[in-house]
Structures are given as C-alpha cells and as structure tokens.
Design brief:
It is built from four helices and eight strands. The chain is an alpha+beta fold and about 200 residues long.
C-alpha cells in the first residue's frame, strides 16, 4: 500500500491497533512505495511531536516503526535525552535486562492520558534499517523504553492494556501540575519523576 501525504493518527478503539502486524518482506524495503511510506511515517512522527510512531498508527499494516528525539520533538518529554532518528523494520528483542525502570508514558493514539509504566531498563534490539540492512543495537534507559513502546504497537498492545494498576493512569492535564499533587501520589517516585526521566523504583 501507499500512504497519503498526511494520514490521520488512528486512535485507541480502531481495530488495526489491536492486531499483530505482518512481517515485511526484506526485498520490499527499497521499493518506491515502501520508501515513500517510511518518509510519511517520519514526517508524521515529527509533526505530532512523537518520540516514536508505529506503522499501524497511520493505517499502515506492517512491522515498522520510527523513533528519535531532538529539539524538534522533545516538548512532550522535556527531560528525555537526545536519541538519533532511526527506522526499525521487523524489530525483535534478542535480550533484555532483569533490572527494570519506571516512567510516565503517553501515546499519540491514546490522547489525553499518561500512565506510570514498568519496563526492562536495557535491551538488545535486532531488525532492519531503511536500506534493508540488518541492524543490532544495545539500548538502555529512555531509548529502550521508546523501542519497547513501539514494539508493543506492532503486537497490538497499547499502554493502558499493560499498566500494572489502573490507579497509575492519569489525565495529561494533571501531569502539568505535579507540584500540586497530594504528597506521595500516586507513588512517591511517580510523584517526583518528570516526563522523560526514569525511576528505578515504583
């Protein structure tokens, strides 16, 4: 398929977001339509200020996502470190740490909400880049977090489906006023962690 120039971001409830996405034929990666779709995906990520975006979020049924953080798109996670822009095609996790960390996650497909989510602190990721070349990277901290969030999309999962406790889901407007929260709410670490920072305790 070939995406239009400005696809809508699909919202939670759309059936495509709940489906496991199909593998990409490696030989298709360098085709004109696939390269066009990669560029549209990247531009949509940047225009929506996403730190990552997965193909199904723009109506493209494929195991593809883009990720990257710079001054162009940092505003939703102001404390997040720089992360070079990258495409991941047919991504997989070959290893992950036993150590975990927590942070506030949001999602372009779940507007108006954030949740305090636990994930592995570091991973080894494998897949293909936009040139059809195999890539393998060790990712840690916020980079690992973004990768795992986007990989969830390719497996039909959104963050409200994996949050440990529904009391850890809050409105976006609330997180703009952490200084006014009740002491220790919803947890001590969540109370004190700014978007883009990580905590090693719940």
């Amino acid at each position: 398929m070939r995406l239009n120039q400005n696809p809508d971001v699909l919202l939670m409830g759309h059936p495509l977001l709940f489906q496991e996405q199909p593998q990409v034929a490696v030989g298709d990666i360098t085709s004109d339509d696939f390269q066009h779709n990669l560029e549209i995906l990247k531009q949509k990520q940047l225009s929506t200020l996403g730190v990552g975006i997965a193909a199904p979020q723009v109506g493209w049924p494929a195991r593809v996502f883009s990720m990257g953080i710079s001054e162009l798109n940092r505003s939703r996670y102001p404390q997040a470190p720089d992360l070079p822009f990258a495409f991941w095609i047919n991504p997989q996790i070959s290893d992950f740490s036993k150590n975990t960390c927590w942070t506030w996650e949001g999602c372009l497909s779940v507007p108006g909400m954030r949740a305090w989510i636990e994930r592995p602190e570091s991973i080894t990721a494998v897949g293909y880049n936009e040139r059809g070349e195999r890539q393998e990277q060790s990712l840690s901290g916020f980079a690992a977090r973004v990768f795992l969030h986007e990989l969830d999309h390719l497996n039909g999962k959104l963050f409200p489906m994996i949050v440990e406790d529904k009391s850890l889901i809050i409105p976006n407007q609330s997180i703009e006023h952490q200084e006014a929260w009740a002491e220790g709410w919803p947890t001590e670490s969540a109370h004190n962690t700014i978007r883009g920072q990580l905590s090693d305790v719940r």
